[in-house]
Design the sequence.
């Protein structure tokens, strides 16, 4: 079984390979190492190997890790569902939130972000596949929500995030990821803070990078399978 350093390097190599294959600029895709449910010692190994961006899904667990490392060279991304009664610790401890899907949450994050902190970097989660069960904003509502978020001075709207539909049909994935790319282009025209498309996980990074993703979120391919929660 390869160790975390080897798997991390192999994830980075795949990203560089797909950047090249789809004629993307080298290093234009950032790797977020998703460390949810994994112990501090695993994250330490990834840090030693040079990784700096980490993604966490669960508020309590994520904040404990941020505070444990207390390291300003690390960037922490909150990528899980966020309930309004848990926004404060996220606003105070994370650098990015990828899963903003309503004004109420954004308003609270804005009020709770410390005045001496850098603004919280925000992505709007988009439900690009129209599945009833998936969270996220319908594509035709993203522009309006971005306009509202842009007025908050403790938040910086950086772009959009999606979770790809689980299917073996590559054409379905490509179609949805292309829609995300087009949506990002529309937003970029209106908002000069927008530059980020968080899209792609272990199973679909090739399609994501081919369709303009700038952040991929990879967990199990680096840290191994997670125990069911
Ligand atoms: C868990 C998770 C990931 C990483 O998934 P893996 O299958 O472990 O690569 C990426 N994005 C989100 C939103 C997640 O919840």
Sequence:
């Amino acid at each position: 079984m390869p160790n975390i350093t080897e798997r991390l390097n192999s994830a980075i190599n795949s990203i560089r390979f797909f950047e090249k294959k789809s004629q993307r600029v080298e290093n234009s895709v950032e790797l977020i190492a998703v460390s949810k449910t994994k112990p501090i010692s695993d994250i330490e190994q990834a840090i030693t190997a040079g990784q700096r961006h980490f993604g966490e899904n669960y508020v309590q667990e994520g904040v404990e890790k941020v505070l444990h490392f207390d390291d300003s060279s690390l960037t922490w991304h909150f990528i899980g569902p966020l309930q309004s009664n848990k926004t404060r610790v996220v606003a105070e401890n994370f650098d990015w939130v990828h899963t903003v899907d309503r004004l109420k949450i954004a308003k609270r994050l804005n009020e709770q972000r410390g005045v001496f902190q850098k603004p919280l970097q925000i992505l709007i989660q988009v439900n690009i596949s129209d599945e009833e069960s998936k969270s996220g904003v319908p594509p035709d509502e993203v522009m309006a929500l971005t306009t509202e978020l842009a007025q908050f001075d403790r938040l910086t709207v950086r772009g959009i995030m999606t979770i790809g539909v689980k299917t073996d049909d590559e054409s379905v994935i490509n179609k949805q990821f292309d829609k995300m790319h087009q949506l990002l282009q529309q937003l970029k025209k209106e908002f000069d803070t927008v530059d980020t498309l968080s899209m792609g996980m272990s199973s679909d990074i090739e399609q994501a990078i081919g369709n303009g993703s700038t952040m991929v979120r990879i967990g199990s391919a680096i840290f191994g399978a997670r125990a069911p929660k």
